[in-house]
Amino acid sequence: MDNLKTENTQLTHSIKKIKANGVRITPQREIILEYLITHHIHPSVKTIQAGISSKLPNLSTATIYNTIKMLVDNELVIELPNKDGGIRYDYFGVPHFHAICENCGKITDVFLDEYPQIAEELEKATRDKSGYLITGTKVEISGICPECQKKLHLDK
Amino acid sequence: MDNLKTENTQLTHSIKKIKANGVRITPQREIILEYLITHHIHPSVKTIQAGISSKLPNLSTATIYNTIKMLVDNELVIELPNKDGGIRYDYFGVPHFHAICENCGKITDVFLDEYPQIAEELEKATRDKSGYLITGTKVEISGICPECQKKLHLDK
DNA sequence: AAAACATATTAGAATGGTTCTAAATTAGAA
DNA sequence: TTCTAATTTAGAACCATTCTAATATGTTTT
Ligand SMILES: [Mn+2]
Ligand SMILES: [Mn+2]
Ligand SMILES: [Zn+2]
Ligand SMILES: [Zn+2]
């Protein structure tokens, strides 16, 4: 499995980056970060808590929120707020954008070679037209995922 | 003012579209819709309520939420969930995308002639790679608005 | 190694935006 | 005008997120 090596590398590099910013690594922080690196389901806080409950049975939700805030500040994780009031989280290694199912809420990664150039084009237009100082770009495509198309008899 | 004519036209057409779908028009609904068409600040529910309180002093928040849901179902309004837990709303006449200030929360429209083609390119990639049935696309550029750049002494 | 200090974690309370509920009102059809 | 289904309303309920203050842990200093 080549993914494992990549994910180990990502974990090592992320921890180094965090420490370089003078922030402590704790067992809680490392386990939450590892969960985010190894799970690509764009989990909510509740999903993260359930996913690591065997390793950290007494983990407080406050710690998850605090850790995520730290990871966002360190530009390792992005937030994906949704219409249902919750926020989902994504370890943002390789630039990509998202397809979101309006029926089941699933968030699917879309990797496109041209995406960085497209994002740059949109950012340049924003800079020129609005004068904003740009820090990041987010693209979300709404729709119905293949599984829900079947469920709802929308396929073919 | 040429905007006024456009906005009146948008109001008329929107009401026609709603009625065509068999939905009743009430004073509350018309006033909320008119507010959304004539204000481009991407307001929250609370901002909408404050903005029309002279016309509708007893307007319930439930009615605003219900009306917005109806307008979203009728594809006249889009929702912009944000990281602070709230949702902001946008009458979505001409396709465009948004710049969002991380400091003050302001949402600025960006109109770009090439945007519809770019959105179509991203949607095609999503269809091909993920099999989603696409219903809409959203682009959000994060950054610091010109006013906040001055406040924070980030300008020049 | 021990003490002192700074930082992080925890359980539970507080907050606040959104949704729900049930009674009163109203729009539009007949 | 009468009738009925849809809509509005005030306030309660819900639930994700933030806050609080006590406890625990890590880092640095002696
Ligand atoms: Mn992702
Ligand atoms: Mn807009
Ligand atoms: Zn789905
Ligand atoms: Zn600003």
Measured by residues with Cβ under 8 Å of the partner chain's Cβ, the largest interface is: A-B, 42 and 41 residues
- H/E series of chain A: HHHHEEEEHEH
User: How many helix segments of chain A?
Assistant: 6
Major sheet size, sense and barrel closure of chain A: 3 strands, mixed
Structural class computed from helices and strand pairing of chain A: alpha+beta
Bound molecules: manganese (II) ion, zinc ion
Mean pLDDT of chain A: 95
**Which quaternary structure do these chains form?**
homodimer
Strand content of chain A: 15-25%
**What is the CATH T-level topology of the largest domain in chain A?**
Arc Repressor Mutant, subunit A
Explained architecture:
Two copies of one chain form a homodimer. In chain A, the strands form two sheets. A three-stranded mixed sheet of chain A has the order 4-3-5. The first copy, chain A, has a two-stranded antiparallel sheet with strand order 1-2. Chain A is 47% helix and 20% strand. Chain A has helices at 2-20, 27-38, 45-51, 61-73, 115-130, 146-151, and strands at residues 77-81, 87-91, 97-101, 107-110, 133-144. Chain A has six helices and five strands. In chain A, a hairpin with a 5-residue loop joins β3 (97-101) and β4 (107-110). The first copy, chain A, folds into two domains: 1-94, Winged helix-like DNA-binding domain superfamily/Winged helix DNA-binding domain (Arc Repressor Mutant, subunit A); 95-156, Ferric-uptake regulator, C-terminal dimerisarion domain (Dna Ligase, domain 1), CATH 3.30.1490.190. The first copy, chain A, has 156 residues and is of the alpha+beta class. In chain A, α1 crosses α2 (27-38). The longest helix of chain A is centred in the first third of the chain and has 19 residues, at 2-20. The mean pLDDT of chain A is 95. The N and C termini of chain A lie far apart (35 Å). Chains A and B meet through β3, α5 and β5 of A and β3, α5 and β5 of B. β5 (133-144) of chain A pairs antiparallel with β5 (133-144) of chain B. The structure holds manganese (II) ion (MN) (2 copies) and zinc ion (2 copies). One zinc ion (ZN) binds next to α6 of chain A. Chain B binds a DNA duplex (30 and 30 nucleotides) through α4.
